[in-house]
């Protein structure tokens, strides 16, 4: 009697497990990011309602708070230039190997500066920062596991997809965005990782 060997493709299984881990962590971070922005926006809008009712002293409070927020964001930009803008070009540069980005520095600085900038009422969207937050988490998991650049690309793309899907509650849109706009090619490993993360 011959025993039939069952071979398990661990590389594909690891992509699914990493994608699930990155999706879980990104979901937590982006959810806290969204919630904090919403609460801060409600607070700022309530202050503007107070101003419209004749409470002029609130104007000075808003001016001072916005100036302090501006100084904090400017200091963070000075320390980590890769948190500027939406963050999507930085993710693309990271995937192409053209940028070397410190994932932890980018993650916490983008988180705080995004909350301060968007929560204060500036005309910014949350999708770009959410994509960069997710990509930073994917890069962090890849660096923790000491993966090569080619292996890391799938985890970064998975984090970017998870970030966009958490920002808008749209997992398929997150996957399609990563495949069309960020990764620019279709790879089974990237597809499976991005889909699992999202």
How does the SSE layout of this entry go?
Blueprint: H1 10-52, H2 57-79, H3 88-96, H4 103-119, H5 127-144, H6 149-168, H7 171-182, H8 188-197
Quick tags:
Clc chloride channel; 77% helix; mainly alpha; 198 residues; 8 helices
Describe the structure.
This protein has a single domain (16-197), classed as Clc chloride channel (Orthogonal Bundle), CATH 1.10.3080. It contains eight helices and no strands. The chain has helices at residues 10-52, 57-79, 88-96, 103-119, 127-144, 149-168, 171-182, 188-197. Helix 7 (171-182) packs antiparallel against helix 8. The longest helix has 43 residues, at 10-52. The protein is 77% helix and 0% strand. The chain has 198 residues and is an all-alpha fold.
């Amino acid at each position: 009697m011959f025993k039939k060997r069952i071979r398990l493709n661990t590389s594909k299984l690891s992509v699914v497990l990493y994608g699930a881990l990155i999706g879980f962590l990104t979901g937590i971070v982006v959810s806290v990011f969204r919630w904090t922005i919403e609460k801060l926006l409600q607070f700022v809008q309530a202050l503007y309602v107070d101003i419209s009712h004749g409470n002029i002293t609130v104007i000075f409070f808003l001016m001072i708070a916005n100036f302090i927020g501006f100084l904090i964001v400017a200091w963070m930009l000075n320390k980590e230039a890769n948190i500027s803008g939406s963050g999507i070009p930085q993710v693309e540069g990271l995937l192409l190997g053209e940028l070397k980005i410190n994932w932890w520095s980018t993650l916490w600085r983008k988180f705080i500066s995004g909350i301060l900038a968007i929560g204060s009422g500036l005309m910014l969207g949350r999708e770009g920062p959410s994509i960069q937050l997710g990509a930073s988490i994917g890069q962090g998991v890849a660096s923790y596991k000491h993966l090569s650049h080619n292996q890391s690309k799938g985890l970064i793309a998975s984090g970017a997809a998870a970030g966009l899907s958490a920002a808008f509650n749209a997992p398929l849109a997150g996957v399609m965005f990563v495949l069309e706009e960020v990764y620019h090619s279709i790879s089974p490993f990237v597809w499976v990782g991005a889909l699992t993360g999202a």
